[in-house]
Amino acid sequence: MVRIIERNEYFIVEKIQCLSKSAAITTSMDVRFLITSHLRATTEGIIKEHFGLEIVEELFNYFQKKLTDNNHTFTKEYTPDIEYLFIVLKRKAFDR
């Protein structure tokens, strides 16, 4: 992960720490909610820009329902152990 960030050349890794599952706040959360939240965090801006704000809530509610309908995907058999990384980045100053 550090090599990927350094290769980008826009950020410096200030701190990186692997969190144990007991330290991760999200372990008590529902996996479907986590997946929906992460997808929403990364795509909501683009969706709003292209399709408008009105559709966002409906779209992600529908997505979470589809995940719930396919519940077999989230059984222990299909879900790998997850590693949680806490990373603090600092944006590099660069000349314009």
From TrEMBL:
Keywords linked to the UniProt accession: Magnesium, Metal-binding, Methyltransferase, Transferase
Record carries keyword Transmembrane: no
Domain of life: Eukaryota
Molecular function via GO: metal ion binding; methyltransferase activity
A Pfam family reported for this protein in Swiss-Prot or TrEMBL: Methyltransf_7
SUPFAM superfamilies registered for this protein in UniProt: S-adenosyl-L-methionine-dependent methyltransferases (SSF53335)
Biological process terms in GO annotation: methylation
Cited InterPro entries: MeTrfase_7, MeTrfase_capping, SAM-dependent_MTases_sf
Name of protein: SAM dependent carboxyl methyltransferase
Species for this entry: Corchorus olitorius
